[in-house]
Amino acid sequence: VEAKGRTTYNEVADEIYSELKSMAHIGQGFDEKNIRRRVYDAFNVLIALRVIAKEKKEIRWMGLSNYRYEKIKKLEEVRKEHVNKIRNKKALLQEIEKQFDDLQNIMLRNQTLESSAENVNGIRLPFVLVK
């Protein structure tokens, strides 16, 4: 099928049967119907693997690595998406940690200002006077 590019099921079955018939000197007889069934089974497996494609009665060669290449390419794209998501989440986490640290520092500063203001007994700043 690969050498022809496009062929039919009957052509392949006939070629295989003729090759096996020429090898009959080994002492084995081959049943043509059995060979056709096995060729049909093999074609179904190749179709499932996307090595060949069947369009009506015509069979077209698609290639061995085509299916694997597509699958690998899709997996690489998924991996890139996951890496980007991880990178974005790391940046978000760092930003949240920075905000948390800043809030902790503000709380600590306010606590120290409150304690020092209570000791002084003065006016706390910021102070707004409204008349």
UniProtKB/TrEMBL annotation:
GO molecular function, one term: DNA-binding transcription factor activity, RNA polymerase II-specific
Residues forming coiled coils: 72-106
InterPro entries linked: E2F-DP_heterodim, E2F_WHTH_DNA-bd_dom, TF_DP_C_sf, Transc_factor_DP_C, Transcrpt_fac_DP, WH-like_DNA-bd_sf, WH_DNA-bd_sf
Assigned keywords, A-Z: Cell cycle, Coiled coil, DNA-binding, Nucleus, Transcription, Transcription regulation
Cellular compartments per GO CC: nucleus; transcription regulator complex
SUPFAM superfamilies assigned to the protein according to its UniProt record, in alphabetical order: E2F-DP heterodimerization region, Winged helix' DNA-binding domain
Domain of life: Eukaryota
Domain E2F/DP family winged-helix DNA-binding, first and last residues per copy: 1-63
UniProt xrefs under Gene3D superfamilies: Transcription factor DP, Winged helix-like DNA-binding domain superfamily/Winged helix DNA-binding domain
Subcellular localization: Nucleus
GO biological process: regulation of cell cycle
Family indicated by similarity: Belongs to the E2F/DP family.
PANTHER family to which the protein is assigned, alphabetical: TRANSCRIPTION FACTOR DP, TRANSCRIPTION FACTOR-LIKE PROTEIN DPA
Annotated protein name in UniProt: E2F/DP family winged-helix DNA-binding domain-containing protein
